[in-house]
Specification:
alpha+beta, Immunoglobulin-like
Length: about 290
């Protein structure tokens, strides 16, 4: 007798007396599927053609469902049913007749995990490829690329034209200073800043000299210069204003200034020069001598 697992289609050969006429519960050794197996019997014989009216004679053997051999087999199975010892939990686990088709049994749990992960990654890769090929995905990619290019262009413009931007919006100067990008909206810079301490008529005199250069390509207005004397902790000890002799300077030209202070305070360690009019930003430091 042969029974077939309804789940994995594994077939098993059993002795004719292994199942009672009512059947019993069995378990597949391949997939652990439980089902209620019943004995299968050969198909009944093809009945003879119906006799004619004059041949309608009752025959006792024509009313039987099974052959004599089937009935003997059933009787023998009924006698042996009570003598069959069931397996654990009354579940029979017969040996498989043959391996199910296309059954992929992993050699170990680690191998099974790797196979499962590989199949999952392959499926995810195919899914991403299908999604990327959709028209809406292409539109989104183009939109992201255009947005990135626009942001990069705006950032480059904000850095390249920061002086003009701060000149139009002075409040942004602090933002540029925060990221380490200084601005010079005046268009002037201090070079060759020097300090000299001397004595004149018995009084100490501090002399500060410097050159103002026009770093732009246009005529620049020269505002007044604020001279600040700083202490050891960069605190302001004294300040005064110097008015340049020339108020306009051509591109690339230099303008010398000379600032003197009689009786400077004690503890001066540095001098800072900045412009008073326009942007009052420190543009040069020099050590005091």
């Amino acid at each position: 007798m042969i029974i077939t697992c309804p789940n994995c289609r594994t077939r098993y050969r059993l002795a004719s007396d292994a199942l009672s006429a009512a059947g019993r519960q069995v378990q597949c050794a391949a997939c652990s599927e439980l089902w209620y197996a019943t004995p299968s019997f050969p198909a009944p014989p093809v009945p003879d053609p119906e006799p004619s009216d004059d041949e309608l004679v009752f025959r006792a053997d024509s009313d039987t469902l099974f052959t004599q051999a089937d009935e003997d087999r059933l009787d023998d199975a009924f006698l042996r049913a009570d003598q069959t010892v069931p397996l654990k939990n009354d579940i029979e686990q017969p040996e498989p007749l043959e391996e199910p088709a296309n059954q992929d049994l992993p050699q170990s749990s680690a191998t099974d995990a790797r196979h499962h992960r590989a199949r999952t990654e392959a499926l995810a890769k195919r899914r991403r490829g299908m999604i990327a090929a959709l028209p809406m995905s292409r539109v989104r990619r183009l939109f992201r690329m255009a947005t990135a290019i626009t942001l990069v262009g705006l950032l480059a413009s904000a850095i390249a034209f920061r002086t003009d931007i701060v000149r139009a919006v002075p409040q942004l100067d602090g933002l540029y200073s925060l990221v380490g990008l200084g601005t010079n909206v005046v268009g002037l810079d201090f070079t060759d800043v020097k300090t000299l301490g001397t004595t004149r008529d018995g009084n100490n005199v501090l002399i500060v000299t410097a050159k103002i250069s026009n770093i732009t390509n246009r005529l620049a207005y020269v505002p007044s210069v604020l001279v600040s004397l700083l202490g050891s902790e960069s605190q302001v000890l004294y300040e005064w204003t110097v008015t340049p002799s020339v108020r306009e300077i051509l591109p690339g030209d230099l303008l010398e200034i000379d600032a003197q202070l009689t009786g400077p305070p004690q503890g001066v360690s540095a001098v800072r020069l900045s412009f008073v009019e326009g942007r009052n930003r420190p543009v040069g430091d020099a050590g005091a001598s």
